[in-house]
Design goal:
151 residues; Arc Repressor Mutant, subunit A; 2 strands
Length: 151
């Protein structure tokens, strides 16, 4: 799975909102807090608003805030709001792929990959990340001998 800049920025911005919940934060303050380009962030916030993750409030005390408590907002929901489905195969959902011959069973692998990604990002909430308390099964994945090594 490749996390886009858009997805990473969305998660970082929503973590700022989670830490301040239920207060509102301006786009400029979010950009400054995370060192993000404001114009790009504003486009991301618009996607998050359309996705039901944040609401925008106008006025002098306005800004953005989460629509649900941080404990009810998963990383997966944030990523989907800005990037669409979590795992795709050349623009298609894994279950929509079809192959013949020796590749016949490949869709099963693609579905398993999607399920593995979901088992992490749909189980971790913004609140857990802000507190540094990731679920035990997620933390266990980081303890594998090669977990922190690229390959």
């Amino acid at each position: 799975m490749q996390i886009s800049a858009r997805g990473e920025y969305a998660v970082r911005a929503t973590l700022e909102l989670a830490a301040a919940h239920p207060a509102t934060i301006s786009a400029q303050a979010l950009a400054d807090a995370q060192g993000l380009p404001r114009k790009f962030l504003e486009a991301i916030l618009a996607d998050l608003r359309r996705g039901g993750i944040v609401i925008s409030i106008r006025g002098a005390e306005g800004g953005y805030c989460l629509t649900r408590p941080p404990e009810e907002t998963t990383v997966g929901s944030v990523l989907r709001a800005v990037d669409g489905p979590l795992a795709g195969v050349r623009g298609h959902r894994p279950e929509q792929t079809s192959y013949s011959g020796t590749s016949e069973h490949l869709p099963t692998l693609w579905v398993a990959v999607r399920a593995a990604v979901r088992n992490v990002v749909d189980e971790v909430t913004l609140g857990q990340i802000v507190r540094g308390e990731l679920p035990a099964p997620v933390m266990a994945l980081t303890t594998a001998p090669d977990a922190w090594q690229s390959r």
